């Protein structure tokens, strides 16, 4: 790909030299995806100046590649008439996304300026929940009737697709009331005899989505069936639009981000994903506090467990210094187990039916690594403190702790899944705390059983 | 979608009733993606029995949806002649993947049985590194010459695409030596006048891949430009194949899994991703040990820090019980910061140029949450131990610890990125350990400065 910082430098030179004709020429020559990368790195004033130099088509194409914040920023800062023209050139779903991200009165202004038909269609899209298939789909779909011939369809495409700037993957076959009857791929269309009837080449066993399907279901269906595009119907099987794989690509990225955020206890329900990284800082704080608070409560239990053994601690203060070692490694290997299970559930490699297999497998992994690390810790402590009993107790605690951590880390996601709770939610912090509590209890019990008696 | 467990039950009934005609009928009626879900849940013997009942076309289609392990298992267990026929029906890239996953002598047996042309093409694919564009691409691409008319191309498609079972997204324009000159989308083809020359409607500014490009570059290009398919050329710009978005979808899922594994210190370089979850258990142990070992070394430093203050601990053993609380919350909020940065780097929302912004933003988040949690801890400790000085010291340590944890968690990924090290690698465990060390040092310093003197 290209070196963005060199290009940025060149753009700044051209701006400061005021050679705008040259700049305009160069900007319009870039691929819109490259332009998007460039625009992200420009300062807002430079961004606006460059955006104004783009041809309408290019500007519309660029807008599709930009983040919602930049879309609203740029369209809000240019002339309203020009902005309306750019929005009109967007696919309907992209236009609805842009308008949906604006303030209500601002989007109303634009909707009033847009061509009537376009505006009405976009308004309809805006009535759907943006997290459902209805809110994601593009309503402009190429439809044909089942009694048309291949040649009819090809002629129909020639007229319609050009005029409506239509995305073309499949041709959808509908009846007069727009009920979805079948689908024909372009490949089938291009390789069938031109006088064949559409109904003879269409597939009528259709994988389709419903306008109210949630986005995670939409991505699941796309990931499973691997089609380029899927039709979206309403309750009565009337074709309302289609969703293409590039829309889904963005959704998958969002879902992955949510999964990763949740694993470290960042709630994506209390704040918009974008805000957590760079928006309103108090929303970000709110998104991060709940699971930290639960960790706080959990760690207070750990404090109480330790407190329960304060006579042990007073008798043998040296045992305290090994607490972070045990908690750290237990937390670490337990997090590995939970990561494997949670990720396995989302890729489909782990299912409830394999729970026992994974629990025993992880227990064995924990036992092997626990024995290895327990031995290392025993030797290190013995060599350092010249106290073999202390070394043995710490090492034994380490082995038990690591084995238990893998079991807890594996069992919990299965338990949550059985209870129909998303195992990704807050798994990490909660389990680390549980392992702290259990690990300390084991350690201090071992210490007070073996060491205190010996002393 | 469908309820797999009901279907499995029905299949078992049909097998035990020996009504195989009925079973064959039903199995062949499922979508191959659904069949793949069903096959995963069947026992190996049932799986084999069902696989043998599938028609050749269906079996080949199913194989594409199966995991490499199941592909090799099923094809290895059926008659070699039938297996060869199924492999011949696969797209070239899928055939190469299947054969590449077999033992060398096994794949040689099949390669000798396959039709000569197919076998030669698949052999060529197998010469490419499987993690490069050459190893991912499908070599069967529809090519045309620049002086052909739209009508010529449509006729050419009718013959070639049908015969070679070709994926059709774009038509690639090449010269006589197969150098890539341009690309025409099917949409453009279908909406252009039929007597227009290809060279007048082709795009010659082509986004293309090179056979030696690594898979992470391939996914980056697809994610950025959002094309359905991209051409792959060799050093001399000769067209060698194309990669389609569904191949990339699998790659993206693998990369995400690697990213998530690495964040919890599971090395994907020491063991195959599949083995970590369910393959050879000793490979899994090897993949998980290295970063645990580094954690072990790091936590020994924490132990030494604590040991440095053993007179403090002996004088005031109660302070030891707050160690897990401080380490737990510091580790937690620090992990949140690092998660945000590492994910931000992979989605492109975070870049080196915004380092200072993010460090200060996270520091502020840490400070706010730290003050809040410090106050809570102070109050809780005061109420519980009736010791306001102890409460204040623990609370202050908590606030400092959480603020420092966000700074360390944010700074480290930027530092790694500057040093051209992937920030995803082992970020989690290493930083948690660092925070343990620094946090304990701060805590014991506060304790020995304020509490011991007071006492």
Q: What are its keywords?
A:
homodimer, 455 residues, mainly alpha, MgtE N-terminal fold, CBS-domain, Tetracycline Repressor, domain 2, 3 domains, three-stranded mixed sheet, 6 strands, 6% strand
Uncertain segments of chain A of ≥5 residues (pLDDT<50)? none
**Roughly what percent helix of chain A?**
55-70%
Biggest sheet strand order of chain A reads 1-2-3
Number of domains of chain A: 3
Radius of gyration of chain A (Å)? 30 Å
Description of the structure:
- The structure is a homodimer of 455-residue chains.
- Chain A has three domains: 4-127, Alpha Horseshoe (MgtE N-terminal fold), CATH 1.25.60; 143-251, CBS-domain (Roll), CATH 3.10.580.10; 274-454, SLC41 divalent cation transporters, integral membrane domain (Tetracycline Repressor, domain 2, Orthogonal Bundle), CATH 1.10.357.
- The model of chain A has no long low-confidence stretch (mean pLDDT 89).
- In chain A, helix 3 (32-41) packs across helix 5 (56-65) and helix 6 packs across helix 8.
- Chain A has helices at residues 4-17, 20-29, 32-41, 44-52, 56-65, 68-77, 80-88, 92-101, 104-113, 116-126, 133-136, 150-164, 186-191, 198-201, 215-225, 245-263, 273-278, 281-308, 310-315, 323-347, 355-385, 388-418, 427-454, and strands at 143-144, 170-174, 180-185, 209-210, 229-233, 239-244.
- The longest helix of chain A has 31 residues, at 355-385.
- The first copy, chain A, is mostly helical and 455 residues long.
């Amino acid at each position: 790909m290209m070196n963005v910082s060199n290009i940025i430098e060149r753009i700044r030179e051209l701006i400061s030299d005021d050679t705008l004709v040259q700049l305009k020429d160069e900007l319009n020559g870039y691929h819109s995806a490259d332009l998007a990368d460039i625009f992200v790195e420009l300062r807002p004033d430079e961004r606006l100046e460059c955006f104004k130099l783009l041809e309408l088509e290019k500007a519309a194409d660029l807008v599709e590649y930009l983040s919602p914040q930049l879309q609203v920023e740029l369209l809000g800062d240019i002339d309203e008439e020009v902005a309306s023209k750019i929005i009109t050139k967007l696919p309907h779903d992209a236009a609805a996304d842009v308008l949906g991200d604006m303030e209500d009165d601002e989007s109303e202004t634009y909707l009033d300026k847009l061509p009537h038909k376009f505006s009405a269609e976009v308004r309809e899209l805006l009535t759907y929940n943006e997290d459902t298939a209805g809110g994601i789909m593009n309503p402009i779909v190429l439809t044909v009737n089942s009694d048309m011939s291949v040649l009819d369809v090809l002629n129909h495409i020639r007229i319609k697709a050009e005029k409506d700037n239509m995305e073309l993957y499949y041709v959808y076959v509908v009846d007069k009331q727009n009920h979805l009857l079948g689908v024909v791929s372009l490949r089938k269309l291009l390789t069938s005899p031109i006088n064949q009837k559409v109904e003879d080449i269409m597939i009528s066993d259709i994988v389709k989505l419903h306008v109210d399907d949630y986005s995670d279901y939409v991505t699941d269906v796309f990931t499973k069936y691997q089609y380029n595009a899927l039709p979206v119907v309403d309750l009565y099987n009337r074709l309302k639009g289609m969703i293409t794989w590039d829309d889904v690509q963005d959704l998958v990225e969002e879902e992955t981000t949510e999964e990763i955020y949740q694993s470290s206890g960042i709630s994506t329900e209390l704040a918009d994903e974008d805000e957590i990284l760079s928006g309103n800082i108090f929303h970000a704080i709110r998104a991060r506090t709940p699971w930290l608070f639960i960790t706080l409560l959990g760690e207070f239990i750990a404090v109480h467990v330790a407190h329960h053994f304060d006579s042990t601690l007073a008798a043998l203060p040296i045992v305290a210094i090994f607490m972070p070692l045990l908690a750290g490694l237990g937390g670490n290997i337990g997090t590995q187990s939970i990561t494997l299970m949670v990720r396995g559930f989302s890729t489909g490699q782990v299912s409830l039916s394999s729970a026992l297999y994974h629990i025993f497998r992880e227990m064995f992994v924990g036992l092997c690594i626990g024995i290895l690390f327990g031995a290392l810790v025993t030797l290190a402590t013995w060599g350092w403190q010249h106290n073999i009993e202390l070394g043995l107790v710490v090492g034994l605690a380490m082995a038990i702790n690591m084995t238990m951590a893998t079991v807890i880390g594996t069992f919990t996601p299965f338990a949550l899944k059985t209870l129909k709770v998303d195992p990704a939610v807050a798994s990490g912090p909660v389990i680390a705390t549980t392992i702290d509590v259990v690990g300390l209890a084991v350690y201090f019990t071992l210490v007070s059983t073996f060491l205190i008696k010996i002393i």
